[in-house]
Write a structure and sequence with these properties.
Length: 721
Amino acid sequence: MTNQTPNFYALLIGINFYFPHRLPEGNYYKNLRGCVQDINHVETYLKDTFNLTPDQIIKLTATASDNPNQPQEPPELLPTYENIVAKFKELTAKAQPQDRVYIHYSGHGGRAKTIFESLKGSMGLDEALVPCDIGQPNSRYLRDLEFAKLLEEMVAKELVVTLVLDSCHSGGATRDIETDDWSIRKGGFIDTTSRHTDSLVAPLQELAQNWQASTENSRNITVVNGLLPEPKGYTLIAACRDNELAIEKIFEGTERNGALTYYLLKALREYGTEIPVNNLYDRISNLVHNDFDRQTPMLIGETNRTFLGGQSVSFTPGASLLRSVPVTRTTRTVPVMKIDITKNRVQLQMGEASVLKKGAEFDIFRFGTWNFEDSEQRIATVKVVELGASDCWAEVTGLHNEFTTRELTPKLREGIIEIGSPAVYLSPGWKQIRKVRVILPDPLPQISGVNVAMLPDILKAKKEQVEGHRWIEFCSEAEKEENVDYFVSLNSEGEYWILDANKEPIKNLLFPIEVDEPEAAKKLIDRLIHVARYETILDLDNEDAFARLNGKLKVEVIKSVKREQVVLNADGNVPVLEVGERGVVLRIHNESNRTLNISALILQADLSIVKSYPKGAPYEVVDRGQYRETRLDMELPKNYQEGVDVIKVFATVDATNFQFLELPSLDQSRKGFGNQKPKNALEQLLSAVVDEDNPQRNIRVVTDASEEWTTEKVEVVVKKM
């Protein structure tokens, strides 16, 4: 046979027929109707794809016949406990190191009283695969410890193992359900039958030792509800989560198939065996879950390789820091779950539980893409408009490459985006360039020496002459108010005021500029630039939903009251402190599992930014689980009776200099700011964030600049008494 794949072996097990039986309390395993069909289709696919010879495929099936007491197959081909164990060992002996091994099981999963009491206790349970003769005298389950040992022997021989389990994986608490359209592969009970307490796989002590060795360093002692230890050295796709159902139904014609097997083969025929297993899983898991909301397939184990092919999948790191494409696929993408063409949106597998926020953006790439440096594979950009706990709906805001249209609002069409397509998370960037609109009163005030009607044009012309002018843009009356960041108003006394997006005066901006004073226009432009710079730093936050340190920094303002420590900012309260007040400290907790470098800035009432902690050093080292305290000496700038200070604390893994962010007080020269040379990825980011001459509409960051830092802030009202 030409083009044969000599280093590929398969073990295929499918059980429709279970010998008639009754277990305690009247329980029994019902016959299934789609498992053998699953195995037959898998066999056909493997033969057609890899040109496998009969000695490369080991197949055990039990098919119902006209005789309700006997299957169609002869005893030596039935998936009994003895045959399953023997075929596992035969395959392991036959295959050579680096050979590919594919195992596919379709049938019932079950749960029985343990035979490993020394390990699990007298009340323990074994998860198991259910052989077809489980109701016969002297029959036995293929138990979790045995199954784990069989796989461990394959891994120890350096075989490249891929395992698909199209079954439920425990007896669980769910009833066995069957309708005309679909049924589940689950017993729904605990078998208390007394059975053999020996094993054909290995001595019980050896099985227990292997299990303990496989789980001793794992917090999740088992996966698939105890059927297997945490997989090491093999790839596992399981039909459902521990508490869910593995469903079979009629998908085409009159034949039943397991949902996992059906969509798995469908995807493999469409995309081939060299597809990265992550991509394959993203597609089939969402197709299955969209059909059956009580079934969510699982992908566990070695996931950085192609499915069946066995080749490792590497990812191309990016050369540029400030870009929208991530450097790794595994930490910064989520799959498309559903596509709603009528509403021009997609559902993504990420939600509030991942600290995702409305407005977050994703780039969607072609299904099967793993090199996200290749912009030709980018399909669309979407923006989150609706959040769920673990998913979200994102509206299409742009189409790319051959899908680009001239429409003002890009519209999805059939076939552009596929279920399972990878969506690359774009960290919410920091907006530097702020839009400004001038609001003139009606009627216009009469101000000596000033042509009030020409003020918008005068300000626009003056802007181009002010250093850092690119930080602001004047917008027209046609611009939607929701896009405006600041409004410049003119009151009846002829004074300029800067208002925020809600048309409220900017906090702490106490002293207006008189329109007719010398250099009024230049001073106003300079203030707008300063406020934009200040608020960009105020908004600076690591909103990357994948960042591991987020939520691990705790900042408290604490005061001693009658010998008790009172947290003043508990429950979101804003502390009110007097100038010079004593006995108030800032406590910074490192609640992560890493040693962190801590720095704190104070954004003061006069719109200056200074590093306040630690004194005389760029940062303070805080071990995991520890905290640091520093005394708070609150002050107010000259001429202020009250102001709002913001204490902004940063925690980083690498040593980082936050003097990049320092800013003089309002109306003071900013020259010389930001001249330090960045020494790491975060400092490069900070340098870009405060760039005087080249601000960006939206700075986006990637893994190397966002994975290892976080920040928290506390507002404090400071008063003179």
